[in-house]
């Protein structure tokens, strides 16, 4: 596991993860950037998926992206922390990693799910992200190269402190 600062749409990995909304039809933030970079064929495939519940994950092709696949997951909206947010966020990471395994993928990059428009505090979200992925790798024995792709330098510092 490692953390980097980058635009996730530039990464040539087996899968990048999208912080989507339950419609899976696009939005702002990283979702908007991924849909713009992948092109119109992405939304056509997404229309066939029937949406996605919070904490669940669905996979599509990567289309024009350098990444081969996109795993779309829906993070929780932060409502103060006592509304199941941490469990739902952990489900996003665990269910995305399950898809990585089921599809035989060996590299995946995650954005910091829920910490933009959905308002989840970065320190708390990064803790959930790192803990959940670490546990998945240990329990499954999977050899997957996992990158936490941070958009800002302060976010990168938070992840790096947890990974050291
Ligand atoms: N590469 C990597 N990270 C990025 C990029 C990028 N190109 N662009 C933004 N981020 P957000 P959420 C970071 O708001 O909070 C959408 O409208 C960003 O700085 O994209 O889960 C969806 O459709 C932040 O650290 O996702 C939903 O409606 C992180 O990605 C809603 O936003 C997540 O921020 C989901 O909100």
From TrEMBL:
CDD domains: Macro_OAADPr_deacetylase (cd02908). Residues 1-164 form the Macro domain. InterPro entries: Macro_dom, Macro_dom-like. This is O-acetyl-ADP-ribose deacetylase. It comes from Luteolibacter arcticus.
């Amino acid at each position: 596991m490692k953390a980097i600062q980058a635009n996730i749409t530039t990464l040539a990995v087996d899968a990048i993860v999208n912080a989507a909304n339950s419609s899976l039809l696009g939005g702002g933030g990283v979702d908007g950037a991924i849909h713009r970079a992948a092109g119109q064929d992405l939304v056509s495939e997404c229309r066939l998926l029937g949406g996605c519940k919070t904490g669940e994950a669905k996979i599509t092709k990567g289309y024009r992206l350098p990444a081969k696949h996109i795993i779309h997951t829906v993070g929780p909206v932060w409502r103060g922390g006592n509304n199941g947010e941490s469990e739902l966020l952990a489900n996003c990471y665990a269910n995305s990693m399950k898809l990585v395994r089921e599809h035989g993928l060996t590299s995946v990059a995650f954005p910091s799910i829920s910490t933009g428009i959905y308002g989840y505090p970065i320190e708390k979200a990064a803790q959930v992200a790192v803990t959940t992925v670490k546990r998945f790798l240990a329990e499954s024995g999977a050899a997957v190269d996992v990158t936490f792709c941070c958009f800002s330098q302060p976010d990168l510092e938070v992840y790096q402190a947890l990974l050291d």
